[in-house]
Amino acid sequence: MQLTAKASSNHALLISIQTPQFKGDEAAASLAELARLVTTLGFKVVGTQSQRLNSNQKVSVLGSGKLAEIAHLTGNQGLIEESEESDDVDEMLFTELPSENLSFGSADVVVFDCDLSPSQLRNVENQLGVEVFDRTGIIIEIFSRHARTRTARLQVEIARLNYLAPRLRESAIGNKERQMGKGAGETTLELDRRKVRDQLAELRRELVSVQDELKGRRTQRSELFCVALVGYTNAGKSSMMRALTGSDVLVENKLFATLDTTVRALQPITQPRILVSDTVGFIKKLPHDLVASFHSTLAEAHDASLLLYVVDASDASFRSQLDVVHEVLKEVGVDGITKQLILNKADQLSDEEQQALMVEFPDAVMTSTRNPADITKLHQYIVNIAQDEMIEDEIIVPYTANGIIGEIRSSMSVTKEEYEYEHITFTVRSNPINLARLKKQMQNKD
To answer: Both ends of the chain: CA-CA distance in Å?
Structure first.
């Protein structure tokens, strides 16, 4: 199963199912976000519709009347049948686009703003006669297209195959062969499922190997103060990463434009160096398999000394987005780390709106990555936090230990040097781990 915006198949109709637990502004915001997700894949959203139901567990998801109306919009290509079950419909809602924009055959893709079971997906596709996707399938496809590094590609492919496996279907050829008495062994479907299981096993083995390498790199960086940028997708983390580090990271106004963790040194350079990492963005209803797959990516946040919670302060829903970030980080075990809320994109707010937010979030830092003064202020904030974690100590180094002298000057903040007859006494500020390692290194040389 592959989601593709084909030239002849790229007009998407979005469907929202509102239940007693999911309705109103929450449902509307989720549907608007789905439109952005679908657009990221290259589809054109031609309309959105909603229906109120007691649940989304029906075999055909929607009521039979609503399915018939949607089938008209997709060109009546399916096999709409009368449903024997009660529709249990409270009210039908039509949203977003005027009805005159939704004509016969105006959509050739239908996307549901919820998860569909394999049987639901199959039933709806049979009745509508067009491709039908759910929210998880769309998100996984975006991740699949945007993954660049080996680690991200492995993680996304595992999530994609986990999603695909229960949705595999018997091909028409396989059915025909069975009916004719051929293929006494495994069916085509069974062979496909076994192939997916084998692929998953191989991918997981490869991922373990890659994760071991990444763990080694993080261990090497453990002596340095590390800052992790975390937040909702499209909150401006990549722009902030570029502003803080001068790195040439991808910046696009798209959901999940970047998936791969990038680690760079804070610029202007500090002594000792401070590292900044840009982690994967979060989203509401993030598929569980993707959360599980990205544990190693989010390990950058787990191992960080400081978490900067970046939010798009110009987005009215940033508070609920911040809740999503808290929930996902809690799920992957990130706790007990210093956190700082960054109200980003301040340039899109009026002075009154900025003042109101600072009253509501008095400890937050208001920034715009387009304002150099804001970035300088944030840079200084990071440096101050890093220095607060440092301790001061004296290190006596013989003149013959040239390597140690060079390492002290490159990895620690030297506040004083006293030259004696046989040695130099350095007064330094550094983190306890780095100091302990250096002293142990000197003892071993003795």
So the answer is: 63
Q: Which of these ranges, 41-45, 178-182, 387-391, 416-420, has the smallest mean pLDDT? A: 178-182
Distance of CA 19 to the CA centre of its chain: 26
The C-alpha atoms of residue 318 and residue 308 are separated, in whole angstroms, by 15
Alpha carbon 393 to chain centroid distance?
41
* Long-range contacts, 312-316 (Cβ 8 Å, 24+): 312/232, 312/234, 312/235, 312/236, 312/344, 312/345, 313/343, 313/344, 313/345, 313/346, 313/348, 313/349, 313/357, 313/366, 314/345, 314/348, 314/349
pLDDT of residue 177: 46
Structure tokens at 406: 């060079």
Round to whole Å and give the CA distance between 259 and 257.
7
Q: For residue 396, which of 384, 385, 408 has the smallest C-alpha distance?
A: 408
Q: Are 286 and 233 in contact (CB under 8 A)?
A: no
Q: Assign residue 355 a region: left if phi > 0, alpha if psi is -120 to 50, beta otherwise? A: alpha
Q: Does the predicted model carry a pTM greater than 0.85?
A: no
Which strand (E) or helix (H) includes residue 432? Answer: helix 432-445
The DSSP code sequence of 391-402 is EEEEEEEETT-H
Which H or E run contains 94?
strand 89-95
Two structure tokens written together for 235 = 């909150």
Tens of pLDDT, residue by residue over 321-353, are 888 888 878 877 777 788 999 999 999 999 999
